Amino acid sequence: MKRARKSPWNGERRATVLAGLILLQALCALFFIGDAIEDFREDGQFDNPHLMIEAAAALALVAGVVFLMVELRGLLSRMSDMQIGLDIAHGHLTDVIEAFFEAWALTPAERDVAIMILKGLDNENIARVRNTASGTVRAQAASIYAKSRTDGRAQFISLFVEELMAAGDTAADRNPRGAA
Question: Which positions fall inside the HTH luxR-type domain (predicted)?
Fold first, then answer.
């Protein structure tokens, strides 16, 4: 059973509609505020029921504008988080890994070793694949763990598992064990 694919514009369209409603509501608030000020200038008293209703409507509209602006900001943040999750799910984990590697300033050799660690190879197999001594691989792995501020292979791998399970924080934003 094939799922209907949602248009990528749905979230953007929703944000645009919400922004339009905020603008419309702000214009209505300005109208009521202006009208209430004009009525107050003419009457000079605030005890007029018509003036009090207009003032209350203006305050409600201003409160609504503020609330909708907060909601729009939250919507845009959630859309960004969802996009990051989709990028990871669609095979862009490489970009996430590269962001970590760049933050940690890994050398090209360390990057190769780190990728093989993530693939589950042990030091001897990495040495065999790279045609280097296993001591060299151990030294590179130790450097990777130090730069990533992890205690070893399991904790290093868990960084990337956490990234896959994260609610949308990017490697560059979160980088919990990145270089200082």
Answer: 103-160
